[in-house]
Structure formats: C-alpha cells, structure tokens
Amino acid sequence: MTNFSSPLLKTLHDRGYIHQITDETGLDTLAQKEIIPGYIGFDATASSLHVGSLVQIMMLRRLQQCGHKPIVIMGGGTTKIGDPTGRDESRKMLSDAEIDANIASIRKIFEKFLSFGDGSTDAVIINNDDWLGDINYLKFLRDVGPHFTINRMLTFDSVRLRLEREQPMTFLEFNYMIMQAYDFLELSRLHKCKLQMGGSDQWGNIVNGIELGRRVNGTSLYGLTTPLITLADGGKMGKTASGAVWLNEDSLSSYDYWQFWRNTQDADVGKFLRLFTDIDLDEIACLEQLKGSEINQAKIILANAATEMAHSKEAALSAEKTAADTFEKGMGGKGLPQFSAADDTISLLDAMLGLGFIASKGEGKRLIKGGGARINDITIQDELHIIHRSSDSIKISAGKKKHGLVSFN
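Below the sequence we write its predicted structure tokens.
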C-alpha cells in the first residue's frame, strides 16, 4: 500500500522512511482519527548517539510534525542487559552511574530535534528502568513468560547468527527481547502508546510487543520499521575511516559533522535531503537533478541543514565559512581541529597523532610514504620530517578530507 491518506504515513512514505508496517490500513485510519503516541527506544551505551541513530530520531520528529506525540525511551533498564545484535561479543557492562550520565548527555541531542513539554503532542523522555528495575521476577515469569516460546526466539537473526558461529550468548542477553516487548506493554498501559518504530532489525522485537499487548490486555498496537540506510557504494551509513559520526558536539566538532554531510556521494544527495532535513520535497527534487560540479551546492545545502538541526545555525554557517576559507581561498580556517605543540618544533608524525588523524606512528609512516601527508598543501614524504615554527599556526592535511591546524605556544 502506497496511497496513504493520513499526513503521517504519507510523509513517512514520501520521504523514504517506511520498510514494513504491521497493519497499514489500521494505522493509516487511526492516524487520521486521533493523536498517536509513538515510541522508539535508545540504549545508553555511550555518551552520544551517532548518525546511525539519526533515521530513528528523524522519525520521531516527523511524528511530531504530523501532529502526534513522540515518546523517547531511554534504555536505562535494557542497557543493563545488552541487545543480542548479532555481534560476536556481549556488551560491556556499565554501572548505574555511567548509564545515568549517558542518558543525561543523550537527552541534549533530542532537545535539538524535538519539542518537549506537557502538551498533547509534546515529546517526553522516559527511562524504562522505571518499570524494569522493580520487576518481581517470579511474577514476571508467570505473567509474561507463557507468551514466548524458545522455538520462535531461536529463529530471530540476532540469536540464530550468534549460535551458528558458536559464539556464546548469555541468558542475560536472551532476555532482552522479552524486556523490549514488555516495554511496549507498559507504555500502552501507562501512556496509551499505540505505535513502536525502529530499524528493520527490530521487526521481530516489535511484533513480540504487539502480540504481548494483544494477549495480555486485548490492545491493538502497531509497528513500523525503516529500511537499512546504505550508501550508494554499498557502505554502511555513519561509518567512516576515522570512526563513528557522533551527534553530540562534545564527541565530534561541528566542522567535522558538517564535512561528513558535505562529502556525501552524488547519488545519495536526494535521499539524504529527504531523510535528514526539513527541506520541501519539491525543492529536493530540483536539487537532486543537479549534475557535475553543481551538485556540490546541493551538498552544501544538505550539510548546512543537517548541521543546523543537530548543532545550531551559527555552527553550520561557521563550518561552511571554514571550509570555504580552507579549500577555496587557501586560508587556515579557525573551525578546523587544532593541536598545540609544546615547543617551537614538532615532528609531522606527532602533529598528526595530536590532531587525531592517525592511530599510530606506523599508520602515519605509511600515509607519508604514500604521499598522503601535506603541510600547508605541500606534500611531505619524509617520515622523520620536523615542522619548525614559521607562523602561529600551520595547516596539516592527511588524505583528502582530514585537515587541521598545529599552533605553537
């Protein structure tokens, strides 16, 4: 079904968010009749979410833009368990204090994308430890356990792949999918939540929650998943050679965040504009038709819009100016990553290490030998090259996309 009537599903479809819906007609009809509280869960395993979570954050934004109520579930409880996502190793266990600190940091991200308050469509953040932390284990087993079969749980990819590799899966992790289903049941009871959204890998967990709600309370609940967002070259969204693209400015500078979007592949520009900006679809249709060097203007528009949403308009404009100064005018942009040398000299290897461009001196030597290191845009191929103070700051480049400034005290 693609001919949706509700603004919610029409918007999600037209912008490319929909992969599967448990009951398309039912959800489309409900979205026209009433305000739907809908949720997505985020575990607090780090102090920031990364771009891989941005589709889900934008889904909550679209939900609110279409007149419905976003519920952000922070997995204070489920983070203590660990999601069996197909990785070969279990998650590192975090303390309660670490989890609480991560939740406080992640909340700042959602405040950039959603409007919070006490209104009927205002977003709320809820910690699932509020109910999971006080569960009576025997009562939980008696009330919820009979609704799940080991046979079915073993068919989920996240479990099956681990077992096929003969990698251990703890009983703790195995409980995760039951915890997530119970989250949906509790949210439907406490907050009249009727919709759970998530990535395509969450389909089985979402269906579990829907079935649990029907069996326990006779409640009609709905699920919607997004497609896996891949790049035109087949790569995974948000993964770069330098690591994860964090949403929190404390973890990744506004300039680096802006550059991530500016470096979007030509074939992905239209898709990313639809998914990650509020730009009108008609304007996007025009922008994605640009060819040759003109497509770069569309990439700048994408980078500005995405950075303004996640950081601020000032940060976006500053990043654009820094890039223009650095790449077009040959100036040293003040927004670039910076490292301060302790003396009037520093080796090129130490400068690249200090800027975070390389993980080891061995990696740096290979980069230099391969012609990938430059000082003030001049290629340097001497592994032992020493930089002498010639001005207050010197531009260092590693490859085509990493640029920074070394200053001298």
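The mean pLDDT is 88.
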